[in-house]
Amino acid sequence: MTCGCRTPRVGDLHSYEEALALLLGHARPVTGHERVALAEALGRVLSEPVVSPIDVPGWDNSAMDGYAVRSEDLVGAPPRLRVVQRIAAGSAGQIVEPGTAARIFTGAPLPPGADTVVMQEVCERDGDWVSIGQVPRPGANVRRAGEDIRARTSLIPAGTRLGPAHLGLAASVGVGDLQVRRRLRVALFCSGDELVMPGQPLGPGQIYNSNQFTAAALLRALGCEVVNLGIVEDSLEATCEVLARAAAAADLVLATGGVSVGEEDHVKPAVERLGSLDLWKIAIRPGKPLAFGHVGETPFIGTPGNPVSLFVTFVLFARPFILRLQGREDVEPFAIPAATDFDWPKPDDRREYVRARLEAGEGGAARVKIYPSRSSAVLSSVAWANGLAVIPEGQVLQRGDPIDFLPFSELLA
To answer: If we measure between CA atoms, which residue out of 38, 25, 110 comes closest to residue 67?
Structure first.
């Protein structure tokens, strides 16, 4: 029985760089925006820059607890000044007259007439008088108006994925809501008659569907809205039907499993029947069969079914593609240079992304340990790891050699 599939346009293995460039070249940021309250904006992608309406600080203020004084009163003999007022944060003081000082606390506005704050540690208080044992330079310990932020300054550029510091920064200038891109809708399904949902009894030859939970969690960590279409039976007709539904319901379709060339692998021919396949094989390990194409106008990514291959191909390819769809430019992870704590005696003709841990070695230097098994079915290795070690094609390594390490902190957000 034939499926009517045409020959793939991409038959040879692509390098990591070629494959990623191809995906990103097809990424078109989603349209549509919404305004959300600051408290609801964590993880969203900013679509309109945040511009400060005010100066921060809004006025000259004290950088520490001490005494606000006129610098001209600090010349000559060890100064002794009369304390005539007390200024706490949230209040305003009166004019500091010659020969007087104001007791002041961190963050309080600098009173008129004063230009310097003497920290309390070099002062000695005696009733209404204060003696200054160490004279500071004029203007010391004062935070000037606009020193941090000037009004009309662009604080956060469009395309930024908002983290806690961004929300705090927006709040510090009085911005209460933000314009963000709408959430990316991703339709997800898993292929395989052997799959059973957790909580159900296993039959002969069956395994639990971990991929659905791994993939959905990876998507949600990127701020996506997940349309979960569950498990699809191993048939071309069922795969074509769910692909059509998924493409109509979402901005991106993500499938796990069924992308290889076995008789029960129907995802690739189904994509070719309904649309186009632009990428299939990549020269990496794990995760050589990665399908990318379109179902109608909707982009499609199909990952291998082995759980480690799913994880690796998602963080290396699906993640940057999704970030670009969300309107972000900073999509490639930052690699940390480190040293191997292992030997790699046999070179591979494919680049390998090995489950690894970055740890402190002797003398505190960063060392990379790798998981003993290279099997792409061992999901426990991903839970053990805190990143991926990148072993280039044809590379032989000895303990202590330099290596690039991709931390999960760079790959999971």
So the answer is: 110
Provide the angle, in degrees to the nearest 10, between the axes of the packed helices 267-274 and 236-249: 60
Residue span of the structural domain in which 256 resides: 16-32+183-325
The whole-model pTM stands at 0.86
Same domain, 242 and 316: yes
Give strand ranges (E) for 282-383. 284-285, 289-295, 298-303, 336-340, 351-360, 366-370
Do both 41 and 128 map to the same domain? no
Give the integer Cα–Cα distance in Å for 128 and 100.
Answer: 10
Nearest one of 124, 253, 267 to 188, comparing CA atoms: 253
List, in sequence order, the alpha helices (H) in 5-59.
16-26
Say whether both 85 and 38 belong to one domain.
Answer: no
Of 133, 163, 181, the domain-final residue? 181
- The single-letter code of the amino acid at 89 is A
Domain boundary among 80, 113, 143: 143
| pLDDT tens-digit series, residues 133-179 | 999 999 999 999 999 999 999 999 999 999 999 999 999 999 999 99
Q: Please give the angle made by the CA atoms of 198, 186 and 375, to the nearest 5 degrees.
A: 50
Answer yes or no: is pLDDT of 262 > 60: no
Can you give the pLDDT at residue 13? 87
- Are 260 and 389 within one domain? no
